[in-house]
Fold this protein.
Amino acid sequence: MLEKLKREVYEANLFLVEKGLVINTWGNVSGRDPETGLIVIKPSGVDYADMRPSDLPVITPAGERIEGEMRPSSDTPTHLEIYRAFPYVFGVAHTHSVYATVFAQARRPIPPLGTTHADYFPGEVPVTRLLTPAEIAGEYEKNTGLVIVESIQKGGAGMRACLVASHGPFTWGKDAGEAADVSYVLETVARMAYLTETLSAVPFPAPMQDELLDRHYSRKHGPGAYYGQ
């Protein structure tokens, strides 16, 4: 099922590794089939070097796995909310690339300081509001998607990226390959913006929310951990 899409999503995931945008298993790309609406996404916690196209699970828009032995990425509900809100999106990528994540942790949008930025993004790349403690304790990954959608809907059309406060970047495009490429460009312009702004002092940000720190740590290491296979 969807063998061509699996190959495209697989290659887009490897592109993140090739461009140095992910380490360990910290990142994922998904793609949506325009005919069926079904989604292929990286399996949760699987090393890129060990992954094969056949390992990628197929899920419905509601998040039900209908093919594949491995569990889909724990970020799947975030991807689904982006797809649900933006029917023109057919690929979503998520990384923890260094400079884009620095802006996310500082809770600052990436400003459009030059034409390199303007070639891909129509304005500043937004950063979401903080999730509330209730949103973190509840359907955390879904709520992450909802605050991304909220941020994008406040801005103009054409934005293909958003920084999740205290977390990292999500990008999207017309297919999985474009979503991954936007992640690469986003990291490049974030690095340029950071280096440009080192010419002026920036106050050190406050630490991340305790609830968000605990949620991310516990989903991998807590008694109810659900990250990985």
